[in-house]
Amino acid sequence: MSERTLVLVKPDGVQRGLVGEVISRIERKGLTLAALELRSVERAVAEQHYAEHDGKPFFESLLEFITGGAVVALVVEGPRAISAFRQLAGGTDPVDKATPGTIRGDFGLEVQYNLVHGSDSPESAEREIKIWFPNL
Ligand code: CMP
Q: How far is 22 from 118, CA to CA, in rounded Å?
């Protein structure tokens, strides 16, 4: 059964020219793109997207980072797309958790600047897709 997940290439990934690399890994895995948009992020969208982190010490700096440059938002589709993309991304911390061979493990050094986001559950995917692509 096919599943959808919301993927972001964050401002660090866009600025470093890694959009093609991320999309290429998604496509080589066999997943497909159901939506793709390069866009700037309003604070309200960032707050909604990261609502579960409201109150955490890094929340404000996370919002500043994610609204500080263009992101590429994608809806990625395929069998077990949520887990499949999270495996491609690697763990949240690019050094301590993500292993080489993953996007974060290959290109990241700091937890905030971890290049990509992927929904962590079917509920999150549904919620996040509605935030980024309300007309999908
Ligand atoms: P993401 O998968 O988009 O979900 C929440 C984001 O918060 C995470 O990736 C990181 O970019 C960021 N984050 C998580 N933990 C920390 C932390 N300890 N310090 C700074 N940023 C963090």
A: 12
Instruction: From the candidates 117, 118, 119, 128, give the one annotated as an active-site residue.
Output: 117
**Domains detected in the chain:** 2-132 (3.30.70.141)
Please choose from 82, 92, 97 the residue to mutate so as to test ligand 1's pocket, defined by most ligand atoms within 8 A of CB. 92
pTM: 0.97
60: pLDDT confidence band, cut at 50, 70 and 90? very high
Whether residue 1 is predicted with pLDDT greater than 90 in this model: the reply is no
Q: What is the ipTM score, two decimals?
A: 0.94
Nearest CA to ligand 1 atom 4: 117
Active site residue 49: no
The pLDDT assigned to 52 comes to: 96
Tokens of 104: 């974060």
Contacts of 96 (CB under 8 A, 6+ apart): none
If you search the block for the tokens 């066999």, which residue do you land on?
30
Give the Å distance between the CA of 31 and the centre of ligand 1. 25
